[in-house]
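Query structure, 522 tokens:
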């Protein structure tokens, strides 16, 4: 969707581009051309054009030594050129000397008389250009790259293809000067989105009801035998994963339960809620054995550190807190967000804690120091969901404006996943690269993690007796086998999805077109 701007804004941007283009030449007098006879001389105009072009396009390589090639042109297109490049008729039958652009000493300014060597009428033919090598010693960075990366020529020779048989749609571009001839020239074309991996579609196969309020959170235990949910009815329920039957109900919270998680290191279940309470339940006795006091408002989420006995919670009081599980002590209070912290995630590698907030930022935290390492400000709206990829050193964040993917450890932006135009409450990803986003309006989108391709959209019907407005997904999670997807919904149900085993790539093809990538930075 093209954003409309006022005429004033467009004119201002044009002025700014013009200023940036010519700021280097500001206040420099234009030297007179000795050969100029009349002000509109074609020769003078050509020299000015070439001087400006040399400076703007090839300024970074003008210090390189000159390489020339004598090329005898014959009438008509070159018969040895497979691409049939047309030559200028005025140059037919004469021997021309071509200069590789950027290898001549830089002229002092536009309009300066250039020598005959610089009167380039056109670029060399592709066959001529591919035979050139830049006569400079290789840089250290190029030597390092050549240890691992093959040149274009090496790849073509290994495949048994001549270098000249490249597709004619590819343009030849100068790159950093290196010691070998393959690094001097390389094929360049517009980047296109790679074909996404095919994933089978997911289908709804079970709806579990039992809660008397919105189901706000869900977690699967490490043994994959049962799962636990927390609800606005103030209860925590434990369900059998295989049959979907209720095993146990736990009461103790006096307001909506907003987060649950099961420990893999001990027989404990942790829960938090809008009553400001964080509880530790002993599953051998089904009783609360510890409370973690300190948050000043509703606690919206929690996560366990995978390798040490630490619990992290996030709250509407704009902080996240790190707790020692055994001593109940608050190790750190992570301050810095300016609005409610909606989600928190932990991992063993640095940064060990990631938070997303209603102040539109994501923060990566240093667990030892209890301070922010990086603040990501790319989102324009509240960040309610963050998910870490189980295999890659990357993560994704969900907001009504976009789903964004990032690289650890510094939070470098990877790409936007656009199209889920709703308030995204939850994200989940499995090892196969299926990313699931669940929204407040009950829609669920499934994406290919690598390419960002949206391969399926689901909007399950609400259970009978519910209003259509009660269609909403608050949480979703894959089970430990990653063969089932569980969603916690506003119609008081838990929905279970599985892959369609009958689907094939022929019956459900990827409707994908290799469009040119237009990724936004923000």
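Result returned for the query:
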């Amino acid at each position: 969707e093209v954003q409309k701007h006022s005429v004033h804004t467009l004119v201002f941007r044009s002025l700014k581009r013009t200023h940036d283009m010519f700021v280097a030449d500001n206040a420099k007098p234009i030297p007179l051309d000795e050969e100029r006879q009349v002000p509109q001389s074609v020769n003078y105009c050509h020299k000015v054009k070439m001087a400006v072009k040399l400076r703007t396009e090839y300024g970074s390589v003008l210090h390189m030594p000159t390489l020339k090639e004598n090329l005898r042109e014959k009438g008509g297109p070159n018969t040895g050129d497979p691409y049939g490049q047309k030559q200028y008729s005025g140059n037919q039958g004469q021997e021309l000397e071509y200069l590789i652009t950027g290898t001549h000493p830089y002229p002092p300014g536009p309009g300066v008389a250039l020598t005959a060597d610089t009167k380039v009428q056109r670029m060399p033919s592709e066959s001529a250009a591919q035979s050139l090598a830049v006569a400079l010693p290789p840089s250290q960075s190029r030597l390092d790259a050549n240890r691992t990366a093959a040149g274009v020529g090496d790849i073509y020779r290994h495949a048994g293809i001549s270098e000249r048989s490249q597709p004619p749609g590819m343009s030849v571009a100068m790159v950093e000067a290196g010691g070998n001839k393959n690094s001097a020239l390389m094929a360049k074309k517009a980047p296109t989105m790679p074909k996404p991996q095919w994933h089978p579609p997911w289908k709804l196969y079970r709806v579990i009801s039992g809660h008397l309020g919105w189901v706000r959170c869900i977690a699967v235990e490490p043994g994959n035998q049962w799962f636990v949910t927390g609800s606005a009815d103030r209860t925590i329920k434990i369900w059998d994963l295989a049959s979907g039957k209720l095993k146990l109900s736990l009461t103790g919270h006096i307001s909506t339960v907003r987060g649950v998680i099961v420990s893999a290191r001990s027989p404990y279940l942790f829960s938090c809620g809008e009553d400001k309470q964080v509880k530790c339940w002993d599953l051998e006795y089904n009783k609360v054995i510890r409370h973690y006091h300190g948050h000043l408002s509703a606690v919206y989420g929690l996560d366990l550190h995978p390798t040490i006995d630490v619990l992290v919670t996030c709250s509407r009081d704009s902080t996240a807190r790190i707790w020692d599980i055994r001593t109940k002590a608050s190790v750190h209070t992570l301050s810095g967000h300016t609005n409610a912290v909606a989600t928190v995630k932990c991992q063993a590698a640095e940064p060990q804690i990631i938070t997303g907030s209603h102040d539109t930022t994501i923060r990566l935290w240093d667990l030892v120091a209890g301070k922010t390492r990086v603040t990501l400000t790319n989102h324009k709206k509240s960040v309610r969901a963050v998910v870490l990829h189980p295999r890659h050193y990357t993560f994704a964040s969900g907001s009504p404006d976009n789903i964004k993917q990032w690289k650890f450890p510094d939070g470098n932006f990877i790409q936007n996943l656009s199209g889920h135009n709703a308030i995204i409450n939850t994200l989940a990803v499995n090892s196969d690269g299926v990313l699931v986003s669940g929204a407040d309006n009950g829609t669920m989108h499934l994406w290919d993690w690598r390419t960002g391709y949206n391969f399926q959209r689901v909007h399950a019907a609400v259970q009978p007796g519910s209003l259509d407005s009660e269609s909403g997904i608050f949480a979703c999670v894959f089970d430990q086998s990653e063969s089932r997807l569980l969603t916690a919904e506003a119609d008081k149900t838990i929905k279970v999805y599985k892959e369609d085993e009958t689907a094939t790539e022929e019956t459900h093809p990827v409707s994908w077109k290799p469009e040119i990538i237009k990724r936004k930075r923000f």
